[in-house]
Please model this.
Amino acid sequence: MKYTLLFLAAMFFAMNMGGSGIAPTFSAAYGGGLIKKKYAILLFSVFVLLGAATLGRGVVKTLSQGILPKEFINPEVALVILVSATSSLFLANLLAIPESTSMVTVGAIVGAGLYFRHIQLKTFLWLVPLWISFPVVSFLITFWLYRYLYPPHNGNLWLYQKIFSHEKKLRALAIVISCYGAFAVGTNNVANAIGPLAGAGVISADAGLVVLAPLFGAGAFIFGKHNIETFGKEIVPLGLITSNIICLVTATLLIIASSFGAPFPYVQLNALSVFAISCIKNGHRVTLSHHITKRTFMVWTLTPLLSIIVSYFLLCLFVRR
Model:
């Protein structure tokens, strides 16, 4: 029975990750009017699976033994971790705010570590600097690139002429880069559902990646329809050039993080890029005062804390030290 519950929790978590993860990959292309939702969901599903199968193992290793020693993770603890992370992510999806699956997963594992009084702090010595620096880099690179392009002036008119003369190619390129973004999500976020299972010895990393990755597509279909609207259209309208810049910058940074085995908040990377575009188009004050911006930072702060708290108290109730 406990194994059935464990796999059901992992499946539901994977579906919630799909609902949250489609926003940073295809909201730019969708917001730019480049693709219909159903095709975005289909392509997202395929490339998440490819990413998980090729580069997902390093992140699985970090989550299964790099934060909480493996000897403390059994099926009951793994179930608590998944339930805690899923409940936090589900709350974010209900609020239509794309949330980082990595942050809520790490939060749930940290909650377990606090309960057992064993956290491998050395992992955070390299993980936290990456979490802080990469979103800042994402914002700065996007801001710098788009600042050169917008607004049009004598110095960049030649570039606009090139763009308008190759618009069809640029539209196709935007879809390719969105698929690249979905691939990047697969390299990192699928591991969030697999890590606790692998840590408990319930399933191998390879088998888990193949089994759970397709559920991202199902989650994108069920939970992702509103999230793709939030960042695709509500914060700032996104066009062809913007779509390419955002997806290329953020996906590349995530793949670099995956190569280090770092569970990483891709949603934050993408959102900071979107905020960079908004700062250029609308100004810093308008962007920071936008209700979506305020709600986004609130959810990003509260849901990892909620994941830690829920994990800790569920372990207090149901698991002995």
In short: The mean pLDDT is 85. The two ends are 22 Å apart (CA to CA).
